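Lecture 7, part 2: worked example. A protein chain together with glutamic acid.
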Amino acid sequence: MANPFRQAMQQLEHAAGYIQLHPDILERLKKPMREMQAAIPVRMDDGALHVFSGYRVQYDNSRGPFKGGIRFHPKTNPDEVRALAFWMTMKCATVGIPYGGGKGGVTVDPKKLSQRELEMLSRGWVRAMRDMVGVDTDIPAPDVYTNPKVMGWMMDEYEQLVGHHEPGMITGKPISIGGSAGRGTATAQGGIYVTEQLLKKLNIQRPRIIVQGFGNAGAVYASLAAEHGWRVVGVSDSKGALYNEKGLDVELLAKHKLQTGSVAGFFTGAAKTMTNEKLLLQPCDLLVPAALEGVLTSINAGRVKARAVVELANGPTTPEADEKLFKKGVVVVPDILANAGGVTVSYFEWVQNRMGYYWAEQEVFDRLRPMMIQAFTDVWNQSKKYSCDMRTGAYIHSLARIAEAMQDRGRI
Ligand code: GLU
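Predicted complex, written out as structure tokens:
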């Protein structure tokens, strides 16, 4: 698989080539400000001691505290976390929330851990990173295979260490302990707001959609899309994929996933089962990668039949694929815009924690919607102004904000 950090740096250089980006800014953005790799020992249920590798990368904090999730995945490695931390920096600037970017992770297959082992690992991560994280310094959140429960353990561990309540040190928490209404569905909801704008621009009424990945982002996006009367024609998860050109029953599918742990094996008369790789190449209007990096590459991009790609995952499209898709006229709505609803509601959660005053779900979405629409419009306009793809448009837009902050701080 392509190295995601190299991918991120290629994107940065490509965008910098369009604008008069100060060379010192480019230089600063080529390296994270600070990185931590720590050994996290966990006593397993069978009595053995297992030492996991945990990471936190603090990429840039010119615009505010570092912000970004923690990923628990068997393939997580320093270069991946570095890339994800860089993308968070660009994402927060794209939507205009007052944060820099960071990311964390542990190399682990959490599906193989018991609840107790998972809790020990989560608490261990916080003990290892306690000097890095904090409400005004670096604020973690969920990412792939972490969830509100993990955030709850992490907050509790941190509060025990510092000896006072500090719910704003982490976001994506359970609502009972300071989480925000709407945070659980915010990534998908933000993606839907962006999709609505895209459909207007492309003049598509009832899109046929393929969602690759059926986790928090993908599954919620599919069900919101179905509520909109859009046709979800394909879905997949790590175990397999399904496609039916007439549309899939997303509600039944979600139930099936809950019962069996996978979308594979779901039986509806005309639906065809296939591999994830094949699913990406089926006919549709919108292709929504919602799992991991590097799924659209130079090898398959030329055969994508979608009219547009909406990146709910981080980093699903390699630079070579971007170029091919752009030449084919396939619009790619980049991750740093399409999935920014999650971190935007994380920001709302942090604001609510600091006020100690909580909003109803409707208020959260009433605030999220205009921010996503504004960000979409800004990015779209930049891509038209520079005749470039939307990712480059988003980079141009966010780099201007980061550059201004760096300049105003006298960092360059
Ligand atoms: N992990 C999510 C992302 O990649 C959310 C980060 C956050 O809420 O801080 O955007």
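The chain has a mean pLDDT of 97. The pocket of glutamic acid is lined by residues 67-69, 141, 143, 171-172, 314, 339, 342-343, 346 (CB under 6 Å). Keep this in mind for problem set question 3.
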